[in-house]
Description:
This is Cytosine/adenosine deaminase-related metal-dependent hydrolase. With 449 residues, this protein is α/β, with parallel strands linked by helices. The chain is built from 13 helices and 16 strands. Strands 6-7-8-9-10-11-12-13 form an 8-stranded parallel β-sheet.
Amino acid sequence: MKPIALTRKEFIRNSALALAGATLIPGMLLAEDGGQLAHHQVLDGHQGKKSYTLKNVLLETGFEYDGNGNVIATKTGLFSIQIEAGKIKKISANSTDANAIDAKGRLMLPSFRDMHIHLDKTFYGDKWQAVRRGAGGVKGMIALEQQILPELLKNSTYKAEKLIELLQSKGTAFARSHVNIEPTSKLDSLRHLQLALENKKNSFGAELVAFPQHGVYYTDTVPYLKEAAKTNIDFIGGVDPFSIDGAIEKTMDFTVQLALDHNKGIDIHLHESGESGLKTVEYLIKKVNENPALKGKTYLSHCFVLGRLEKAKQQEMAEKLGAAQIGIVSTIPFAGLIMPIPTLMENNVTVMTGNDSIVDHWNTFGTGSVLQKASMAAQVYGQVTEYGLSRMLKLATAGPIPLDDKGKQQWPKPGDDANIVLIDASCSAEAISRISPVGSLIYQGNIVY
């Protein structure tokens, strides 16, 4: 029988029907309010309006240079921004219109994107629990997960919604979430998270990675990954193919073929920092070069082996990753490890970051702020100048920043999606340096708070 590919909407509807007989918890039903943040005051009561104008919006317009061509400041000005049908329609001279929403001089930036997080399994929104490390390393943690997942799943939709609200409070309106696919939870983690995202669809966006946390072959996860790949997920994931599955090529060949068969991207967790880690990176580069359809949609998460290499080898690997268009999504910082993020960026490697685990059985840290991550990166890599600090904003937005490297304004432009954060800062450099407070968040034109 030929498998039927389900759209995300169909998958959510079927999942909701399957859960209909279950005991409902707060947040399990589809919300009618678009998942707005109750603890923030809405911008002047304009929530829900499809067309409106912001006034007194601070935008970056260029760099100020000294006599030697060094950037010494960022030029800014106040503008009015007209928003309609989820897009930025017009940018004009500042308005005195009494009906316009007053941004009160806050700096407008692209809303932030958390590009590596696990929304499906968290203690956040529930009772505090610190990490309980067991014996056996990652495989020991897999055994722990197999024990606790049934309990975690009981209210995972509600906790995912609470975690999304934490991200929103820090200016994040989009996330790439890895979601467990393995024999213990089967596709239940995915179903529960899809319900949470449906509840928040008017205020938060996401792309999902089918994540074989317990290995592809170490546990019998293959049939569940194949089933998940038929749904409207975005990426096929993986984790440490040598140390977990004991076979780099077998696991990677399966992952690559599954992604190709279903037109998905790839995002592999790679913690291995020795020879096996380097071999995995090199093999993935080889497979992507053999299958150009995967260029620009393949990523390595963490990839700590890059931080263990000599500088010459780091440069070589950065060049190869850049040429293959394989991105790196790395944690900042990680213990005493310094990842070669500047070297990667210099070689056209897309580098992104995220909060990873927030208050779960793997990690008790995490504020939910990718702006804080960008600030940490600036500190780690000595980016203390106006120019250097402003470039680190890329890590928080995972994409556009207001000024290009020459100081030309490249965002916002009419026609851009109205995904906006308003910050209490005078410029991007200050926002990064001081981790400036977030005043308001707008997603697809919808005023979240």
